[in-house]
Amino acid sequence: xxxxxxxxxxxxxxxxxxxxxxxxxxxxxxxxxxxxxxxxxxxxxxxxxxxxxxxxxxxxxxxxxxxxxxxxxxxxxxxxxxxxxxxxxxxxxxxxxxxxxxxxxxxxxxxxxxxxxxxxxxxxxxxxxxxxxxxxxxxxxxxxxxxxxxxxxxxxxxxxxxxxxxxxxxxxxxxxxxxxxxxxxxxxxxxxxxxxxxxxxxxxxxxxxxxxxxxxxxxxxxxxxxxxxxxxxxxxxxxxxxxxxxxxxxxxxxxxxxxxxxxxxxxxxxxxxxxxxxxxxxxxxxxxxxxxxxxxxxxxxxxxxxxxxxxxxxxxxxxxxxxxxxxxxxxxxxxxxxxxxxxxxxxxxxxxxxxxxxxxxxxxxxxxxxxxxxxxxxxxxxxxxxxxxxxxxxxxxxxxxxxxxxxxxxxxxxxxxxxxxxxxxxxxxx
Length: 430
Ligand code: ADP
What we know:
Blueprint: H1 4-27, H2 30-57, H3 69-105, E1 109-113, E2 119-122, H4 124-129, H5 148-156, E3 163-167, E4 171-180, E5 184-191, H6 193-229, H7 237-265, E6 273-275, H8 277-291, E7 297-302, E8 306-310, H9 312-328, E9 335-343, E10 346-353, H10 375-380, H11 387-397, E11 403-407, E12 411-419, E13 423-425
Parallel strand pairs: 7-9
Antiparallel strand pairs: 1-2, 1-5, 3-4, 4-5, 6-8, 8-13, 9-10, 10-12, 11-12
Helix pairs in contact: 1-2, 1-3, 6-7, 7-11, 8-9, 9-11
Bound molecules: adenosine-5'-diphosphate.
The site of adenosine-5'-diphosphate has 22 residues, from helix 9 and helix 11.
Pfam families: HATPase_c, HisKA, PhoR
EC number: 2.7.13.3
Subcellular location: Cell membrane
């Protein structure tokens, strides 16, 4: 198959040969015409190469150079290809401009950084909200945002969760890093000051109200005990007992609300120390064995010496809440087994019971405040409805979460895991 370039060249050669043949026939100069033809043919090619070179080295290769034959076709194809490339480049440029324009309109600050944390680009809100400058492109983000929490988050490489940062003394930001496009990262900061302040008002209100209710309730409870001990008509026995039980319940709710407030306020967040979980579980076992006179079979499988970094008292309340729920929500004689062990992923705690179980639709809502699967049952068992909310918040502070698997009528397993980085082994064989 002849390409159009070769066809053009052949047409030119045949035309030129006819002319040369006519000239030689007329003049009879066959040899010199042939030699002249070869010289002119080579000369034409050399001249075309020179023009082609000049044309391709020029700034614009849009217009065709005045070439003939094969070279005309070659220059046409080159310029066609060039136009297609330019169109593609225009499209890419347009897309990137469109993306930049959209990122400018985002209400959040967006900063792109490379694998070494050098800033690649940033949007306008990043200059307003984070105090970055356009000139900061090319600088390391650590040199500009220096908060220790941020530096630790950036270094950790674990960006599944977001962090909260206070910048400019007063504004509060939720900062999240997302990996994208091989080794690049997007840092997205959203101003949550108003939301945070609203949540703070709610937290303060709950904490203050609970605190204010504590003393009157203690007084009430004291007088009720006094009345119970004083000589009284027998028909007052039941009302006094009910009132006394209700004040105990109200006190338990208030204590749980105060615990939740202090976890949320972060006042118990301060110190992370080595927590001797086996020791805590042994203590709980002794406490529960005394209480569980109802006849639950308790089974403890504890890996000795397996400690974690965390907050001892809050963690104790997690284990206690899960254990007491397993006992309260399973029938007498049921088996409750507690496991504390480690594997290559971290340390794991679980409590399994052979109790009532929970239908799947309730499971996602269990950690909501005052959420109860069965309100009456919860009241009978003396629950406050806040136990699992406390568990959730404490686990959040330990980068962990509650895992629940349950089947109605068969039983439930509540558990949580702690990352390997938190695990501390004190016994070699642990
Ligand atoms: P409560 O103080 O009412 O027990 P929690 O927050 O501890 O509140 O638990 C929330 C609800 O989850 C409980 O009311 C109960 O319905 C359900 N629940 C918790 N643990 C178990 C369990 N081991 N088996 C069955 N239901 C459970």
